[in-house]
Amino acid sequence: QVQLVQSGAEVKKTGASVKVSCKASGYTFGVYYMHWVRQAPGQGLEWVGTINPSGGATSYAQKFQGRVTMTTDTSTSTVFMDLRSLTSQDTAVYFCARNYGGAFDYWGQGTLVTVSS
Amino acid sequence: QSALTQPASMSGSPGQSITISCTGTSSDVGSYNLVSWYRQHPGKAPKVMIYEVRQRPSGVSNRFSGSKSGNTASLTISGLQAEDEAVYYCSSYVGSSTWVFGGGTTLTVL
User: Fold this and answer.
1) pLDDT score of B1 more than 80
2) pLDDT tens digits along B40-66
3) Nearest CB partner across the interface for A109, out of B45, B97, B104
């Protein structure tokens, strides 16, 4: 069965960087784009960006351009999201989600990133 | 990439039907049949309920249906049940491998 397992919660200082991982299993890793979606406390879903695990092509939401990098390790079927220059506004749960048929059909369990001064 | 517009909250009684709207622009909802809907219960990851405007994933009840007219997509839930109480989000492809979500609609089953 398809599973997306994310790394654990992180606490970071303002200005620091965070790297969140998402390990996929149960399907052919390179076939489906992977997305990152975040949700600030009590807020809605916000699309962060996507990566094609086959080749590594990326696309990011405009507000994160220059601050986010998504990569993959095909040997371990893992995708990574690196977010830099963190502020309190980046405190959120970050989800990875697989894209299939124009939908995000499987989601990771979420990783809470807390940014404090 | 402005968020799609959804009503902040809606309510209905068990057994009733409700329709949640999701309004975008001619650059997103109006241009692509890649609108999807998600249900999120507190503390859980979202779950896809409808994709490609009106397709229902395996295992999702046929009480859920989707449609689109122009720049507005809609999710209809018939025969409301207590388990339907959740936050619902729409999403649309925007082109150039980018996506956008709606602000979410909190559905209360009275």
Assistant:
1) no
2) 999 999 999 999 999 999 999 999 999
3) B45
Q: Closest Cα partner for A64 from A52, A50, A48, A80?
A: A48
Residues 40-99 of A with CB under 8 A from B: 44-47, 50, 57, 59, 61-63, 95, 97
Give the closest-approach CA distance of A73 to chain B in angstroms.
21
Q: Is B25 in contact with B100 (CB distance < 8 Å)?
A: no
Asked if the model's pLDDT at residue B81 lies above 90, the reply is yes
Whether residues A104 and B3 touch (CB distance < 8 A) is answered with: no
Helix, strand, or coil here: B43? coil
Q: What is the pLDDT of residues B4-43, one digit of tens each?
A: 999 999 999 999 999 999 999 999 999 999 999 999 999 9
Burial of A7: CB neighbours in 10 Å, binned 0-12, 13-18, 19+: middle
